[in-house]
Amino acid sequence: xxxxxxxxxxxxxxxxxxxxxxxxxxxxxxxxxxxxxxxxxxxxxxxxxxxxxxxxxxxxxxxxxxxxxxxxxxxxxxxxxxxxxxxxxxxxxxxxxxxxxxxxxxxxxxxxxxxxxxxxxxxxxxxxxxxxxxxxxxxxxxxxxxxxxxxxxxxxxxxxxxxxxxxxxxxxxxxxxxxxxxxxxxxxxxxxxxxxxxxxxxxxxxxxxxxxxxxxxxxxxxxxxxxxxxxxxxxxxxxxxxxxxxxxxxxxxxxxxxxxxxxxxxxxxxxxxxxxxxxxxxxxxxxxxxxxxxxxxxxxxxxxxxxxxxxxxxxxxxxxxxxxxxxxxxxxxxxxxxxxxxxxxxxxxxxxxxxxxxxxxxxxxxxxxxxxxxxxxxx
Length: 379
Prior knowledge:
By secondary structure, the protein is of the alpha+beta class. It is built from eleven helices and 13 strands. The chain folds into two domains: about 90 residues, no CATH class; about 250 residues, no CATH class. It starts with a helix and ends with a strand.
């Protein structure tokens, strides 16, 4: 028995499982034993089982199919194949296509048996999370959502940072372990502020969509807890924007379909009818999520939904009604493009709560930079 074997036998099952996870990024099977791996090669002669260099055995060499995963398949004759120099595979980070798997490992003892490339190596960068892996786009303040907000000239329009609300992209490239750790981390952050907090989720979701939706809900839970327990409102400003943006996108598509089906009656135009539908849908969504979490948005609170914001600076009492107000930020959902020259926006800035910025939220279907912030004039 070698020294290496003796050393391995002395290790506890937990230690072996941990080292296996660190080395491969994959957990051991529920039985605590390493996964069974069987050699798999689809290129074999069905008559005798011998390995070959093309699908279907020697006879297929007269009509070879070459697939490089990018330019599709092409056929070459046997004589051409014998004399042609081998073509170097193109450099690509994309995974091999289904038709080009030539050397693989079959893992039958997984919950869902799979065939995996023998050259596969887990993405260690993806497992590191904040140390180089996908961030899953978790901006802590609106300054991260609108990077130029602090240093921009007064009254400027500041665009949203690229893909700042894209959860699906980074999440789809993350390993299951990264997603699970991220979700567990969010739960622990909320529990640190609210010890009796319990997530409504029934375990870790099995689908990417379920995992992303759970992350959204937990981020809102964390933002509400930060506001209610610590009195900090920055996270809730970010999550309010995220919530309103996502609902505006969905409501815009719904409104188009409803109008085309004759179920939205316009008073002025098609865009006016769809815009009213989007406004109502976003407000209902905000009220629902805040009510579930016990957020007080009544008169006199830092958070308002369709609240009258008065301007008492002049001889006549005036007011404006933003769709939402969170701290010193006003949020307005619209289909039209608004600037500082718009009377409504100027009214927001002139109101007594003196917003530091007005965030204009438009459905992303309207094109690039559809959502933006307007910095306070004269600051």
